[in-house]
Amino acid sequence: MPAAPDKAQGKPEPRGGEIALVLGAGGARGLSHILVIEALDELGLRPSLIAGSSIGAIVGAAYAAGLSGRELREHVLGSFRDRARVVAKLLDARVGKLADLVRGLGNPALIDGERLLDLFWPEAVPDRFEELAIPFSAIAADYHRHVEVVLNSGPLTPAVAASLAIPGLVRPVALGGHVLIDGGAIDPLPYERLLAPGRIVLAVDVSAPASAASEARIPGPMEAIVGASQILTRTLVQRMVERQPPDILIRAGLDGIGGLDFFKVKAILAAAEPVKDEVKRRLETAFARQG
How far apart are CA 50 and CA 52, in angstroms? Predict the structure, then answer.
């Protein structure tokens, strides 16, 4: 698969250094990415590069397609307003049926990621990377080779479906000779390859911290699958940041939110509101240091 571009394509930022925006994995907490995009919109800034993993790939691709933060906010609020409608869409995107479980043929809850994106993505998102307004890369993991795969050309939907393919929840994607699963399994905050002189790498971590409360409750099967993914995501991000942090690291996401708590979209967005001021302040400081 082609690697992420090393140099930005497109117009330079109005105040000097170019910005690379990196949106991390984290399930429903990743709706907080929208607040970061709103902050960039309010500053009149547009990144020259975008990279995303899992939920970060979903939001990042929509932003790269040209949608504003306000449009993304309105879209997700509208999408998750009707619980029954959402459940119906999820059932429509399933790979298997309940009868398959009885017959030992597979997981009846497994979702086809491409169908899921077709159901929930804004219509403005194009079919191919080359049609995006901003260069964008989606990160996935090669299931058999145990390596990171950077997807930034060709069909967009299967690439992002691969990036969000949490094992046991979303079906792996066969693409370009690879069997691909969730990017969060190998690079949940893919900023390291984008670090470069003269570039400000703004990375948004939405991984879930450990719960402060001591709970004896045993999670259900689906909750355990997603929870294990979140533990892995947080651990990998912590190690990456300790080794080499990005230029700007923003931590966002409402504590106590599970990976599948998308129906709590209003609470997630409200809790992330202070992130906008932090993004603006950190970018102003970074520009001042450059110039």
Answer: 7
- Quote the DSSP letter at residue 111: B
| pLDDT value at 109 more than 70 | no
Would you say the C-alpha torsion 252, 277, 203, 286 has a positive or negative sign?
negative
Using one digit for the tens of pLDDT, what is the confidence trace for 211-245? 766 567 788 888 888 889 889 999 999 999 999 99
- Give residue-wise pLDDT tens across range 178-193: 999 999 999 999 999 9
The confidence band for 104, taking pLDDT boundaries of 50, 70 and 90, is: very low
Q: How far apart are CA 198 and CA 176, in angstroms?
A: 33
- Two structure tokens written together for 213: 């409360």
What are the Cα distances from residue 34, in Å, to 144, 230, 231, 265, 269? 33, 20, 23, 11, 8
Q: Kindly give, in sequence order, each residue whose CB lies less than 8 Å from that of residue 9, ignoring residues fewer than 6 positions away.
A: 48, 49, 135
Output the CA torsion sign for 263, 268, 270, 276.
negative
CA gap 198, 191 in Å, rounded: 15
Sequence-separated (6 or more) residues with CB below 8 Å from residue 150: 1, 2, 3, 4, 137, 138, 139, 190, 193
Cβ-based burial of 228 (10 A; exposed 0-12, middle 13-18, buried ≥19): middle
Q: Closest by alpha carbon to 68, among 98, 92, 44, 96?
A: 44
Alpha-carbon span 195 to 259, nearest angstrom: 28
pTM of the predicted model, to two decimals?
Answer: 0.88
**Are 34 and 59 contacting, i.e. CB atoms less than 8 angstroms apart?**
yes
- Is residue 237 within 8 Å of 189, Cβ to Cβ? yes
Which of 61, 47, 65, 55 has its CA nearest to residue 27? 55
* Catalytically active residues, by annotation: 54, 182
